[in-house]
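Sample A.
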Amino acid sequence: MTEPPLALLEMRNIDPALTQWLHEIGIDHPEQLKAVGAAQAYRRLRAWRPWDAELIVLWALEGALTDTDWIDVTPERRLELRRDVEDAPRRIMRSRRRSASQTRTD
């Protein structure tokens, strides 16, 4: 017999409040969180609930995905995640500028 799918609340570091926040941004199952990744989920949370999305939430999401306690996310991985979170809007803007300039020259 196969086991039922894991619920968000059953993942490490995910408490009822974080579960609710994830539901609010359209992440209802662990598979969705895995597909999106910790950084993208955190960006969405920060856009939706800027007053609640502290960095500890990013570490908790990463820990949930790797089945580790948030406190054990390595400093190197934390730096990678922060860069990913902070660089994404810049990458999007650069891409949009490139697309706009190509459209003008076509």
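Sample B.
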Amino acid sequence: MFIQPAYADYCAVNVTSVPSGAKVYINGEYVGDAPVFYIFGDPIVAEIAVEKEGYVEWKRHVDVPLNEIVDVRAELEPLKEEATTPDTGLSESRAQEKGICGPILILVLAMLPIYLRHLRI
């Protein structure tokens, strides 16, 4: 009697992250915290996103062929902190936004005598 060995097709990814513990999304669906081993039913080009607070989101399209396990390593980069201006403690972008107040104030003060003269007439 001949017994056929059991064989199943598979497609899988093994997702790791540096630092570990990042949230892993496959095709927009949360599948767990890294490291994650995920099995697909058929070959696919999967969108893999890895997120962790304080880090830039990592996102790639990965070809997952039949009968292979694809290793995916997401090396996350820390978010860049905005530099603060020493005198105000505001970030540089906020300090630039506030920079318009000075010129407007000077214009208002320069126009004030003209406006007051106009009210007296």
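B remarks: The chain has a mean pLDDT of 82. Strands lie at 11-18, 23-26, 29-33, 36-40, 44-51, 58-64, 68-75.
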